[in-house]
């Protein structure tokens, strides 16, 4: 069996950087007169949003609904908590990088508590004892350091991001520094790919209720999702909801947690930012 080493995986991911750069350039070229000065790539974004939304309705949403139907709720909760536990470890690192030591210690404590008393993260014992989740990723870290978000971009298959957040997520994948790092270190390829697929399904399933909310209240789904994403990212950088149990709904494309870092996610899921959602 051909097993990739971590170095080979990073080199393979790095080959996608020119593709992303070309997509960004194409997005700039696709920019035409728009209605919102805060969304200079609106023409391209709406086209990509429509593509992602169609793909999501055809594939990802039905799969997530099927998963929710056939999988007992305790099992779904266990799976969701385990992925959140991985994200909490990454949140802790970013909190320390941002100089938010108290948040970093709290997140680290959550990981240690849930990983031991919570059976590897299956049970969110920390939340049961009043410790709230702190959502964080490297895109937020760059924002705290003073980097501007750049233009809002809808990325194929991944959804909402900005130039800063998308770059941070991609850099994390190349450097093998993201919530998915432990998964990428698994040398059993079928097992590794199955876990990644499960994380995508779990993320999309967690957004089903948010999807219904958007459909019921949004006159323009694209604008609603864009504004919700940008407002949430600003709040995370300010730290105003850093102590919340769950972030405000991040309706990237069709609709989090944050499997943060902007990691790759289905069209109906947020990208934090990718691998960040």
Query: What fraction of the residues are assigned to beta strands by DSSP?
Result: under 5%
Order of helices and strands: HHHHHHHEEHHHHH
Shape: globular
How many angstroms separate the termini?
Answer: 31 Å
Number of domains: 1
Cα Rg: 18 Å
Average pLDDT reading: 82
What would you say this structure looks like, in words?
- With 277 residues, this protein is an all-alpha fold.
- It has one domain.
- 60% of the residues lie in helices and 3% in strands.
- The chain is built from 12 helices and 2 strands, in the order H-H-H-H-H-H-H-E-E-H-H-H-H-H.
- Strands 1-2 form a two-stranded antiparallel ribbon.
- Strand 1 and strand 2 (159-162) form a beta hairpin.
- Helix 4 packs antiparallel against helix 5, helix 4 (73-97) packs across helix 10 (189-206) and helix 7 (138-144) crosses helix 12 (221-238).
- The chain is globular and about 50 Å long.
Descriptive key words:
277 residues, two-stranded antiparallel ribbon, disordered C terminus
């Amino acid at each position: 069996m051909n097993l990739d080493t971590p170095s080979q995986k990073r080199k393979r991911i790095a080959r996608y950087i020119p593709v992303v750069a070309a997509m960004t350039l194409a997005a700039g070229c696709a920019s035409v007169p728009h209605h919102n000065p805060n969304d200079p790539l609106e023409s391209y974004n709406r086209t990509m949003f429509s593509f992602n939304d169609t793909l999501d309705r055809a594939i990802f949403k039905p799969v997530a609904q099927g998963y929710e139907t056939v999988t007992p709720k305790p099992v779904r909760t266990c799976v969701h908590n385990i992925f959140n536990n991985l994200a909490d470890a990454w949140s802790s690192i970013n909190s320390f990088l941002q100089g938010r030591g108290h948040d970093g210690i709290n997140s680290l404590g959550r990981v240690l508590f849930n990983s031991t008393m919570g059976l590897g993260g299956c049970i969110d014992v920390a939340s049961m004892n009043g410790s709230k989740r702190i959502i964080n990723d490297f895109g937020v870290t760059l924002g705290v350091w003073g980097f501007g978000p750049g233009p809002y971009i809808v990325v194929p298959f991944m959804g909402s991001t900005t130039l800063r957040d998308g770059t941070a997520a991609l850099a994390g994948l190349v450097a093998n520094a993201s919530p998915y790092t432990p998964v990428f270190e698994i040398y059993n390829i079928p097992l590794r790919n199955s876990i990644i697929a499960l994380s995508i399904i779990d993320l999309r399933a967690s957004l089903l209720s948010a999807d219904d909310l958007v459909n019921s209240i949004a006159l323009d789904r694209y604008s609603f999702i864009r504004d919700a994403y940008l407002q949430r990212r600003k709040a995370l950088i300010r730290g105003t909801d850093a102590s919340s149990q769950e972030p405000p709904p991040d309706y990237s494309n069709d609709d989090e947690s944050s499997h943060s870092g902007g990691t790759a996610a289905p069209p109906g899921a947020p990208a934090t930012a990718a691998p960040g959602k």
